[in-house]
Amino acid sequence: MNCDEFVELVTAFLEGALSPDDERRMTEHLAECDGCTTYLGQFRSTVDALRQLDEPRLAGATRESLLTAFRDKHV
Amino acid sequence: MVDLPVDGELVARLRAGDEACFALVLDAWSAGMLRVARAFVSTPDSAAEVVQDAWLAVIEGVDRFEGRSSLKTWVYRILVNIAKRRGLRESRVVPESSLGPTVDPASFQGPGEPHPGHWRQSPAPWPTPEQHILATETRAFLTEAINRLPERQRAVLVLRDVSGYEAEEVCSILEITAANQRVLLHRARAFVRGELARHYADTEVTT
Fold it and tell me: Which structural domains are found in chain B, ordered by start?
């Protein structure tokens, strides 16, 4: 396997969506290629970084107005 | 986080007008919904309005929920429909998804070189932060990078990687196939990785 093929299959590899044959080729390639090992690590770090983004919050006033709407619907 | 009751009970309580129960789902799901809405519209304020409209539609429509999907998926579909309509109205300019390689072909050796298709140079290593906490500027940079993604890639990336939904849930919310979901996710992740690489290369120079 070449590196330019490897980089296109990383998500499928991480999701366990590859055929057993492709998965074996990916693993064999990793064993021999520092560049792709680094690429895979950075891909993983990217996903981890995305998980750390801030939680957006509903404004207090919006929340209150929705609770009021719910109450009004059921009176 | 407080565990929500199972769907059947949740729906029954919402239909009966149990306000505490409504507050519970409102608080549990609104953050994720804001992120998803933001994937379709151009400002955080529009996203908040989309989420508000979605909840109003849920309040009105919960009596018509048939239980063919989970309640949450049903709520998210309502949200996505409203967000899409709103996004169209704002006619947000979205770059077309290209189908080319996700890594610049110039990063790899060409046919005339010793190892065609292999890295010309290994990707530059990234700094390892002392704690696993993102620097504020990296956080802002990531948010910017997400905003530059084409709409469908952004929606998948936000749901999977930012909000942490499973692949099957994302397929169900966005009504796309598993293969399509994976392609969109991969393109989006590869783009964000490339942007982060650029960000780290820039900050290396200045520190």
Answer: 7-89 (1.10.1740.10), 105-206 (1.10.10.10)
Which of A5, A35, A62 shows the shortest C-beta gap to B119?
Answer: A35
pTM confidence score = 0.81
- Smallest CA-to-CA distance from A42 within B167, B105, B201 is with B201
This model of the complex carries an ipTM of 0.86
Q: Which residues contact A11 (CB under 8 A, 6 or more apart)?
A: A43, B182, B185, B186, B189
Q: pLDDT tens-digit profile of B152-165? A: 898 899 889 988 88
Chain A: residue whose CA lies nearest to B190: A43
Q: Does A55 touch chain B (CB under 8 A)?
A: yes
Q: Which residues of B touch A49 (CB under 8 A)?
A: 134, 138, 142, 196
Q: Which CATH architecture has domain A3-73?
A: Orthogonal Bundle (1.10)
Report yes or no: B78 and B54 within 8 Å, Cβ to Cβ. Answer: yes
Residue B67 neighbours by CB distance under 10 Å: 10
| pLDDT single digits (tens) B190-206 | 999 999 999 988 876 54
Cβ–Cβ below 8 Å for A66 and B52: yes
